[in-house]
Amino acid sequence: FLPFAYFQNQFVPFEKANISIATHALHYGTAAFGGLRGIPNPENPEQVLLFRLDRHCKRLSLSAKFLHHDLPADKIQQIIIDFVKKNKPTKPFYIRPLVYSSGLGIAPRLHNIEKDFFVYGLEMGEYLSADGISCRISSWYRQEDRSFPLRGKISAAYITSALAKTEAVESGFDEAILMNSQGKVCEATGMNIFIVRNGQLITPGFEQDILEGITRDSVIKVAQDLGITVIERAVDKTELFIADEVFLCGTAAKISPVNRIENYSLPQERPITDKLREKITAITLNQDPKYKD
Ligand code: AKG
Questions:
Q1: pLDDT (tens digit, 9 = 90+) per residue, 138-191?
Q2: How close is the Cα of 198 to the center of ligand 1, in Å?
Q3: 53: CB partners within 8 A, 6+ apart
Q4: 190 lines ligand 1 (CB under 6 A)
Q5: Domain 4-123, what architecture?
Q6: Architecture, CATH, for domain 133-288
Q7: ipTM of this model?
Q8: Which of 46, 174, 176, 266 can pair with 164 through a Cys bridge, CB separation 3.0 to 4.6 Å?
Q9: Which helix (H) or strand (E) holds 59?
Q10: Which atom of ligand 1 is nearest to the CA of 250?
Q11: Which of 144, 145, 148, 149 is nearest to 63 (CA)?
Q12: Which sequence spans correspond to the domains of the chain?
């Protein structure tokens, strides 16, 4: 872990950032979180590059709003900037800001939000193999938006991810792909999913109960700039097996190509995935203002 956490309005050594066992979020999953990747600028190691900081702070602020927390994006942003200055990371890292409810009682007490927000970080290399992973179709289905807000990163949603990932790994796969309640392809355990068919990039749309992924958004923008047609639509499970390419994307996972789904092998050549990965890597380094927000 990076040495300092932001906790209860101040920076403290990571080990000192501890919360009570009587925490609403621990009992009922009422937390919302974000995840950002940062790298020291290879041209100026004093400087740190954070990919799409504004967008991450906005999404966390909106996720918090679902839980009735008023946590403005600019406040989160300032804390994250201070967090990075305080920790001075020298290797690629990941930041986890999290807003939670303390106290008990089903309806969270709305309360001292300034206090119930923390940020910590860790060094992070590859999250999934960049050479291609195997995926199982999960027996667990993604929750529905009519049950609770899914567009933001609400902790409770990740119980399904945890079950699905465990099931996948214990049965010899790297990752799980979850269907939604309609039986259409939804997402992986912490990543959105794209398939390529006949040169077109296809991904489930927001009405499919997916997370509003920030890397997903970057992939769509980059693909369009490269002249690739992007279609957001419902995707059938069977299309996964006959796709020309499949990849998962997320902040931690970046772009992770899939080489096998269940017992179907996918082509080893992945020209579109490779092109997108190259371009996304470049924009994380040069911070192209077009992709900054
Ligand atoms: C992210 O990519 O930021 C994620 O949330 C991945 C899920 C996780 O490992 O926490």
A1: 999 999 999 989 989 999 999 999 999 999 999 999 999 999 999 999 999 999
A2: 30
A3: 36, 77, 80, 81
A4: yes
A5: 2-Layer Sandwich (3.30)
A6: Alpha-Beta Barrel (3.20)
A7: 0.92
A8: 176
A9: helix 53-66
A10: 2
A11: 149
A12: 4-123, 133-288
